Amino acid sequence: MQTLINPHILALTPYQSARKIGGNGTIWLNANEYPLSPNELLTQLNLDNLNRYPEPQPQSVISAYANYAKVNANQILITRGGDEGIELIIRAFCDNDDSVLYCPPTYGMYKVSSDTLNINSKTVPLTAEFQLNLKEIEKNLEKVKVIFVCSPNNPTGNLLNKDDIIQLLDMTKNKAVVVVDEAYIDFCLDKSLANELTNFDNLIIIRTLSKAFALASIRCGFVLANDWIIQSLQKIIAPYPIPTPCALIAESALSNTGIQTMQDKVAITLNNKSWLENELNNLQIVQKIYPSCANFILVAFKDGQAVFDTLWEQGIIARNQNTALNLANCIRISIGTQDENLALINALKKF
Question: Which sequence positions carry the modification called N6-(pyridoxal phosphate)lysine (predicted)?
């Protein structure tokens, strides 16, 4: 019976999500989540219509997010997290002979989604400074329809140079779409490329409520693009992608009060990150702390595997990047509560 399954699916290596990897943790610093649940968003949910199918694209959420992102409502598609946006874009633009290009080390779902859809993927590694290698990208554009870049980049945490992304958009005009994954942009919102949508037909932006808005469990993401792209993606998205409770929570999070609450949490996260960076800098086992504009930091240790294993045994679960391209001995650490960050530092001081 296994012969009935597509061969490329049998050979597929699935994405190793933080929850799938598991562990018996008490302190979870491996998924770049906000460490506390925003339960205040649950107090005024009207769930009287759970017997009805949800609105396919809840207009109240679209309007609220358009106001937040400073784009037009017809430039937004709501998706089940940013991951669905990645897959929809590949499905919409790529045929059997086409390719996707991405720049490691970066988010693993660009490759997994391409492999799942049996679309060839090309890689052009980031430079030693974790920036785009435009010369090499230009050499590898044959048959490329979709280019994924992540800014701030996961797992390195840095912003890509805006001028490089603009140059990439110019380079690929009428040839390919450039997808800028802005999952972490709410931690540095003034660096978003959303205002460039009016200048580039081939620009697509992916956003999410999973990070700064602390709503990873409701799986609510957004694709921002010009209306001709949004109309095409609407043809292939599932009929009812956003459950009514999720839409109601998203709407509440995008209210004026909800956005202010998110911004307050961002400020707390960034303050906690600064504290954690300072403490890590004082540890002899740390070789380098990479600059980050997100809610996590990438740290190079003298022996990253030993550090990761020891933390794991103590119930402190971080994200091991040791096998990622050019990230030997590196661990990605999400910013937790101050108590969690202190527990991490105390554990590292025992090395």
Answer: 211
